[in-house]
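Intended use. Records like the one below are meant for learning the mapping from a protein sequence to its folded structure. Do not use them to infer anything beyond what is encoded.
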Amino acid sequence: MVKGTKKRKYTAEYREAAVRLVTVEKVPAARAAADLGMPVHTLTAWVSQARNGTGSFTPPGGMDWEKRARELEVENRRLKLERDILKKATVFFAKEGGQP
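Structure written out for the chain above:
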C-alpha cells in the first residue's frame, strides 16, 4: 500500500453488485473496475471467490428471493414517491422564484 493512502472498505452489497456486473452482465472486469473506481485485481479476486464460493466474499446462497423482491418493490415505490414529490417541489419553487 502506498504511504499516506487508506485501505478502502467495501460493503457486501457493493461487492455483490460489482461481481454481478462481471458474472451476470458480462462486463469485462477491467472496464467494470474502471467504472467503479476500484483496482481491477480486487474485482477479479472477488469474481474468483464468488465462482469458487470461497474467501471473504460469500454470495447469498439461501436467500429468500421472494422476500427480497417484495422488499425491493416497497423501496422502489417509496423512491418513486420521493422523486415525484421533489419534482413537484422544484416546479413550485421555480414558479415562486419568478415573481417579484
